[in-house]
Specification:
Layout (H helix, E strand, L loop, with lengths): L2 H22 L6 E6 L8 E4 L4 E5 L17 E2 L8 E2 L4 E5 L5 E4 L9 E4 L5 E4 L9 E4 L11 E2 L13 E4 L5 E4 L6 E5 L7 E2 L1 H5 L11 E4 L5 E5 L2 E6 L4 E5 L13 E6 L10 E7 L15 E8 L8 E4 L8 E4 L5 E4 L2 E4 L6 E4 L4 E3 L9 E3 L11 E5 L5 E5 L18 E5 L13 E4 L3 E2 L4 E7 L8 E7 L2 E3 L2 E3 L3 E3 L1 E2 L3 E2 L5 E7 L10 E9 L2 E2 L3 E5 L1
Parallel strand pairs: 34-45
Antiparallel strand pairs: 1-32, 2-3, 2-37, 3-6, 4-5, 6-7, 8-9, 9-10, 10-11, 12-13, 13-14, 14-15, 16-17, 17-18, 18-19, 20-21, 21-22, 22-23, 24-25, 25-28, 26-27, 28-29, 30-31, 31-32, 33-35, 35-42, 36-39, 36-43, 37-38, 40-42, 41-42, 43-44, 43-45
The structure holds 2-acetamido-2-deoxy-beta-D-glucopyranose (2 copies).
């Protein structure tokens, strides 16, 4: 852009921001709060633990962060590209009660790696760059007073180096690791005898700017995987390594790294036979190759019933074009689309025009009426930023670092602030219908029936839903392993005290509907979720 158009575009975005500040902020739903002014690191990968702490993870080979490791815990790595003796933390644990931060220590490079919680609550973390390429790491999470930390496994490594892969927990509690740059294969943790298995679909989906990285992987309730890369999608039987269904292509341009929008599987419910996948936004093809930061992102969403015969994509436009948006499954089944930019592509210094307005996607509204523009934030969250549902129904926003190193004097600086966005359902006007969970079992077995006891101030007039939300591994605008399962419930019946209700629930039937592990269980009354309790499902 020449000087005049730069000025014009700056004036224009200032005008837009001013417009929002003066007219829209108070009117649009949702509120923002700053949780941590300086987390010390910019989180590229974020996961919420069952101890109500959050693991935030960046990478090594990046030089100083703004958080020191404890005395005596510096890391020495003769191969580190920037700091051989590195006394800075590149991962931290955040306490959701106090917003305290404790440094964690990773040894190898987790840049563009992947992860997933195992059935016992351990966070598995795989791959990355350089010395992290084939690495497997774990953290057994803890509360903020615990001493948990990253453990790098030395007795086992990935069969292939994985950079930009996606992980998904499977019904038997193992994890599949799909793709990665130069790895058009899948492999498993725990490792299977055949190591990495060729997955030609990923190669077919590749183009001259890749566009097949961080594939969108969703475990369907029929036990197969929905895998989407670039514009293509298949139903994949990983047990036999065969493609069962080739879905139609999704129009509107590439959708995965370096052109990523985001994707969710909508809430599973009823008899769990149907699963709908939604994919929103992305970059124009060529924006990445040309390093064009001002090519408008595309704003279309495609939705498909992945489990039905001859399914087709139904598309719909978002109010904004968006690259690097995060799609977060809210406890009531709505989808929050947040973070990202309106132009450019993924990668260092590749985007501009941050999209500060979150958008709510309400899947049950009629086509054309599904989007609602929400109250804009003030912090651009561009490349390497994350969004995660919290157990209290808020959404945690962290990171943004579109630079190779920590850079603070840039148009889009390395972002160390952590914020929370509260959807409208947490507004004061909803307090008297917000349920509180009084009793719920700590563990439930597949198919078992159990009771949840809730209290609600105003009399309950509708079904109170009981919904399980997984804790995904959020990175690069896709939350690996994200799912929401609505349980079959009875009507809420009064249970003793005033405002006390009992809801009879049936646990998910099997690990295809809900892979074993810890879930946040939310009671949801007229769209308003309780604070979640953690329940182990197996
Ligand atoms: C969970 O399982 C993993 C993999 O088997 C194991 O390494 C880890 O120690 C286990 N964690 C706990 C807390 O038992
Ligand atoms: C951590 O320790 C502090 C100080 O002893 C205590 O007040 C707090 O409740 C503890 N937090 C948890 C989650 O146990």
């Amino acid at each position: 852009m020449d000087q005049t158009s730069v000025l014009a575009s700056q004036l224009c975005s200032c005008f837009i921001i001013l417009f929002h500040l003066t007219h829209s902020r108070a009117d649009l739903p949702g509120t923002w709060e700053l949780l941590v002014a300086d987390a010390g690191i910019a989180s590229m990968h974020t996961a919420v633990t069952r101890f109500n702490t959050v693991v935030l993870l960046d990478r090594t080979n990046i030089g100083p962060s703004r958080k020191l490791l404890p005395k005596g815990h510096c890391r020495f790595d003769k191969n580190d590209a920037v700091l051989k003796l590195d006394c800075y933390a590149h991962s931290v644990l955040l306490d959701l009660h106090t917003n305290q931060i404790r440094p964690l220590k990773i040894l190898t490079d987790t840049w563009c790696s992947s992860g997933q919680f195992l059935p016992n609550g351990t966070l598995l973390q795989t791959g990355g760059d350089l010395d992290g390429f084939k690495k497997i790491r774990k953290i057994d999470p803890c509360d903020i007073n615990g001493s948990c930390d990253w453990v790098e496994l030395n007795d086992v490594e990935l069969t292939e180096g994985r950079w930009y892969a996606s992980n998904q927990i499977l019904p038997d509690g193992s994890v599949i690791i799909v793709g990665g740059r130069g790895s058009n294969t899948v492999e498993f943790y725990p490792k299977r005898i055949n190591g990495a298995v060729s997955f030609p679909f990923l190669l077919e989906a590749e183009d001259t700017q890749m566009d097949n990285l961080y594939p969108y992987v969703h475990l369907l309730p029929n036990g197969h995987l929905f895998v989407f890369a670039n514009t293509k999608a298949v139903m994949y039987d990983y047990t036999k390594n065969i493609v069962l269904t080739v879905y139609p292509q999704l129009d509107g341009g590439p959708r995965n790294y370096p052109s990523a929008g985001s994707s969710v599987m909508l809430a599973l419910q009823g008899d769990y036979s149907n699963a709908e996948i939604v994919i929103c936004g992305g970059a124009q093809y060529g924006a990445f190759l040309e390093r064009s930061t001002d090519t408008p992102a595309h704003g279309s969403c495609g939705r498909i019933s992945a489990t039905q015969t001859d399914p087709v994509w139904v598309t719909e436009d978002m109010p904004y074009g968006r690259i690097m948006g995060d799609m977060v499954m809210l406890p009531n089944g709505d989808v929050l689309i947040i973070n990202g930019a309106m132009s450019g592509s993924q990668g260092f210094d590749m985007a501009s025009n941050p999209c500060l307005n979150p958008v709510l996607y309400r899947p049950n509204e009629p086509l054309g009426l599904r989007f609602m523009v929400l109250n804009p934030g003030t912090v651009p969250r561009m490349y390497h930023s994350t969004a995660n549902l919290l157990p209290d129904g808020r959404v945690l926003l962290a990171g943004s670092n579109p630079h190779v190193f920590y850079t603070f004097d840039a148009e889009f600086p390395t972002e160390l602030r952590i914020e929370a966005f509260s959807p409208e359902y947490l507004g004061p006007d909803k307090a008297n219908i917000r349920p509180e969970i009084l009793e719920v079992p700590e563990t439930v077995l597949f198919g078992a029936t159990f009771n949840v006891i809730v209290s609600v101030e105003l009399p309950v007039v509708e079904i109170v839903e009981v919904n399980l939300a997984s804790a995904p591994f959020a990175t690069h605008s896709f939350s690996q392993g994200q799912r929401l399962v609505k349980l079959a419930v009875t009507s809420a019946v009064p249970d003793g005290g005033v405002g006390r209700y009992r809801i009879g629930c049936t646990a998910p039937p099997n690990g295809m509907v809900a892979p074993p592990g810890y879930y946040m269980v939310f009671a949801v009354n007229q769209g308003v979720p309780s604070v979640a309790r953690w329940v182990h499902v197996s």
